[in-house]
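Blinded run. Sample ID left blank on purpose so nobody reads anything into the name before looking at the predicted structure. Input follows.
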Amino acid sequence: MNRTYLRLQETEGYLLAAASRIYAARLQAPRSAAVSDDKLMKQAITEAIELAKTIDDVVIADSEVD
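Blinded prediction complete.
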């Protein structure tokens, strides 16, 4: 049996968690047009990255303060 092992960086794990929630919500939501699951997954990943970038721009973490 072939096994796949992944070792994600910490931030990749957080993005995976966010993207998987977005993806699951999109799969459950009614679709007005024929959109492939693969396209929905890629959109979810893109949106998770956009969310992370926006949070990074807006929030100043303790470690970022001089």
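Unblinding after everyone has recorded impressions. The CA atoms of residues 23 and 64 lie 31 Å apart.
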